[in-house]
Write a structure and sequence with these properties.
173 residues; alpha/beta; Dihydrofolate Reductase, subunit A; 5-stranded mixed beta sheet; 24% helix; binds NADP nicotinamide-adenine-dinucleotide phosphate
Length: 173
């Protein structure tokens, strides 16, 4: 099973500005994200990102894929249509998706979810869509990543638009 992570980031490594501001992210990056979800057939989110997408009506785009949101709050756990809100660990979540026949899994953020999968050594490849701005504050790509440094290998770069470049990395394990 291959686990990939994709995020739109600022030059200084934030995935959202203060107050969850993602107004700076591009349509090309969003389309790239949609394409990846179609490829994997699933999307794993942190509870905060899941709630924000729900409020914004964005989950409508993902009705045909399996959406899994992670939480530590037992009271939020539910299964409804294509959505599972679970208190499982990152490892158990991947096992669940494997049992459902998924061969590739997309980790879609936010920063805390990204960090918990990376810390557990579960991310194989990372796609970063770098946007031309410096945010200086907000949500980092990995919020509270506790392990030692991690080496990556650059697999590819791709221009998504004149302003946005995608860096595709493999995690060296
Ligand atoms: N630019 C991009 O590509 C992009 C993509 C996604 C999100 N974002 C932005 O990122 C921000 C949200 O990021 P965030 O770091 O604040 O929140 P997040 O990662 O979306 O959600 C954090 C919550 O997820 C749950 N969680 C995370 N890891 C878990 C684990 N291992 N086990 C169980 N539960 C786990 C916990 O929920 P409980 O508190 O319920 O226990 C935790 O509080 C938003 O502003 C969003 O717009 C940007």
């Amino acid at each position: 099973m291959k686990v990939i992570q994709q995020n739109a980031i600022s030059v200084d490594g934030y995935i959202a500005g203060p107050n969850h501001d993602i107004s700076w992210t591009s349509i090309e990056s969003w389309e790239d994200f949609i394409n990846l979800t179609n490829e994997t057939g699933n999307l794993v989110l942190g509870r905060v990102t899941y709630g924000l997408m729900q409020s914004a009506g964005e989950l409508e785009h993902f009705k045909k894929i399996q959406v899994v949101a992670l939480t530590t709050n037992d009271q939020l756990v539910e299964k409804k249509d294509n959505i599972i809100v679970t208190n499982k660990s990152p490892k158990e979540t991947l096992k669940l998706l494997k049992e459902k026949g998924h061969k590739k899994v997309l980790i879609g953020g936010g920063g805390r979810l990204n960090a918990s999968f990376l810390e557990a050594g579960l991310i194989d490849e990372i796609y970063l869509n770098v946007h031309p701005l410096v945010l200086t504050q907000g949500t980092p790509l990995y919020t509270v990543y506790k392990n030692n440094k991690l080496d990556l290998k650059l697999l590819n770069t791709k221009k998504l638009s004149t302003q946005v470049t995608q860096f595709h990395y493999k995690v060296i394990k």
